[in-house]
Amino acid sequence: MSFDENILIIPSYLDKQFFKTALEHETKVKHIEIVSLNLKKGSELGENYMSNIYRATIIYKPNGDTLKKVSLIIKTIPKTEDREFQYHLDIHRKETSLYMTVIPKMESILNGIKIAPKCYYATDEPVSTLVFEDLRADGFTLANTQKGLSESECKIVLEKLAKFHAASLYLLDKHPKLLGQTKYKYGFFTPESVDDPVVEAFFVDSLKTEISVVETWPGYGKYADQMKRIYFTIKERILALMFPAHDELKVLNHNDLWVNNFMFKYCPGNPSLPVDIRFLDFQASFLISPGIDLNYFLNTSVQFEVLKSRRDVLIQNYYYNSLKTTLESLEYEEIPSLETIKMEIRRKEFYGFVSAVSVLPIVCMNQIDSDDCTFDTFANKETAEKKRLAACRTKRFEEVMKYMLKRAEELGVLD
């Protein structure tokens, strides 16, 4: 076994026996021999916050056959005090169920359209661990976080998201037990988790920082005052959004739909043109209005000019047309209207504000500031405050936040 010299500390259980078990589980071939194993970090600092990611390059011999080579991604959630809420929410079992059962079923009913990387293996011991195909080996890559997504990138995200939502509607209708109401009742927010110190740091502390920044913008004092009033009730308002109304359209939401949670494949002759996408990290997924995913995505990951001038096109031409076409191909009877989708977005607009408060600063950080960001960075109040302040002073953050605040006032979202 070999290790990359710049690697994170590798857990001792990620040994040859572990990968032998993982490969035998995926290939259904017994007696696999691991000939060589090289482990290194699987993501750069600033790319992943909730988990530790490793990349394994393995040469193995299946049942005495010829040598084969494979590259795998390993995602682990360490058992630390700061990550206790993740274990409390049982997100590993939910994510495992999605990757191993629900998503393959969706891809099947979508005639082979891929939604996520293939999951080879999952275990709870000694810590929550998932093993995936390495999408980079197939030409997939992350988009530029700081720049935000172009219209062509947004198009492919929203069209694939619509297919994901449509497939969930079909499953809820035809296979309701697969998306049991209990397992997918909550995302990250529950009456218990909303008081977790790390959750508070991402949402309540972030709002406090941004109030101090907005106060310095000429003409934006009234918005800062509105944000101050929200500060005392933001957790209650977030929780209220997490319980679907009786007449609400419910789909399986990804619920963490920001730029670092999808990978693109680009056209070889035109590296700015995406041709495919895979979604990552389904640990927060739950059944709720599509307005949750759409508001989250629009307020965190889209280039400002695209968001400002092409918002309606993103929703109607890319998301809704794909949703409608997919449901028609599945012969789904009660296809939601465009007006219904717009209503769902409107009723969850406050979640767009929450997303901007919590995730937008991370997205807008300059590269030099984001390079050393980890989960632990934001668990430390002092360090997190410095990072957020740096992010809130970027041009992109100011543009998006000013746009969002004016829009929120027009819609009465901050009342």
Automatic annotation (TrEMBL):
Source species, domain of life: Eukaryota
Pfam families noted in UniProt: EcKL
InterPro entries: CHK_kinase-like, EcKL, Kinase-like_dom_sf
Coiled-coil intervals, chain numbering: none
Occurrences of domain CHK kinase-like (ranges): 130-329
Record-linked Gene3D superfamilies: 3.90.1200.10
UniProt protein name: CHK kinase-like domain-containing protein
